[in-house]
Amino acid sequence: MEGKIYDVMILGGGPAGLAAGLYAGRAGLSVLIIEKGIDGGQIALTHGIENYPGQSKTEGMSGLELVAPMTEQCRRFGCERVSDTISACDFGGPVKKFIGARGEYQARSVIVCTGAMTRSIGCHNEAKYVGRGVSYCAVCDANFFRGLDIYVVGGNAIAAEEAIYLADFARKLTMLHKGGALALTPAMKKQIEDNPKISVLCDTEVADLGGGDLLSEITVRNVKTGELTTFKADEADGVFGLFGFTGKKTTAMFDGVLEMRDGYIVTNERMETNIPGVYAAGDVRVTPLRQVVTACADGAVAAMQCGKYLKGLK
Ligand SMILES: Cc1cc2nc3c(=O)[nH]c(=O)nc-3n(C[C@H](O)[C@H](O)[C@H](O)COP(=O)(O)OP(=O)(O)OC[C@H]3O[C@@H](n4cnc5c(N)ncnc54)[C@H](O)[C@@H]3O)c2cc1C
Predict the structure, then answer these.
(1) CATH classification of 127-244, choosing from 3.30.450.20, 2.40.10.10, 3.50.50.60, 1.10.3720.10?
(2) Tens digits of per-residue pLDDT, 121-139?
(3) Which residue, of 29, 55, 124, 274, is most buried by count of CB atoms within 10 Å of its CB?
(4) Among 114, 144, 258, 298, which is best to mutate for testing ligand 1, by the most ligand atoms less than 8 A from CB?
């Protein structure tokens, strides 16, 4: 791997990276996929995915199960793999470089698929209930909380948009916001106020989560008075949803190297960045929807574009 110059280097083995690997490998390009952890990226964290088109089970399928055949397809079409954490890049010449803890890797084109990591809510027991009541993605998990109570953490426009989306599924929805007032435009504030299912608790942070296997208790703290209040799920429900929208973070490695907006890489519809031969795909790029299906689509587009770039075509 070290010393070899690949046609394409793919950084990240989540859905975008694996789809890119499949398309690039199948197109006959030499491919190196670099992943620091296990394949699957964020989707590896979920116990239940039901919105990937054509998935083999529509109920009870884990992210890892969804991703395993993607890894196998990459292997079948000749993608090479290395397990390494990349900390720096050099996109200055026609041969691009990634520098990792274990070595240096080179290719004539690059697809950045490093995804985005959700910021945690920061309360006690949060990790225990991820996928068991705690979620960070309304489109992914709203359907699991149809007809149940939902709590949303966050007070900005993203949290409000997600709350409006989630309210269609919820019996009632409570927004929990640390600040004294929601940070919204008057129009969006009105949408929240006019929604009969939504109520807002300001000056409020989540302190603790509880329940059995599923989340059914949430203790909040008034940040001004320190007073603690515990909400419990209806006995018949046995669970409620807690959605955290406190922001996402992407890798800082490309700051000052690639054009970025709000921490995400800017691309065009061909996944081209501002540097020729460098593409970005999936959650790491500026995009209106961050899902497995869009990440895979981006990866496929980027891989096909690499092929054209290497042949001197647009
Ligand atoms: C809990 C949860 C549930 C979700 N549920 C759904 C759902 O039901 N349906 C749906 O469609 N989507 C769901 N999503 C969203 C979905 O997981 C993402 O949209 C998708 O995984 C994005 O794919 P990606 O390949 O762009 O990035 P990621 O999945 O984030 O993968 C990026 C990969 O890059 C690697 N990487 C990053 N930096 C480096 C580095 N410096 N060196 C080496 N490797 C690196 C990471 O280890 C990671 O494996 C969910 C997300 C979460 C967190």
Answers:
(1) 3.50.50.60
(2) 999 999 999 989 999 989 8
(3) 29
(4) 114
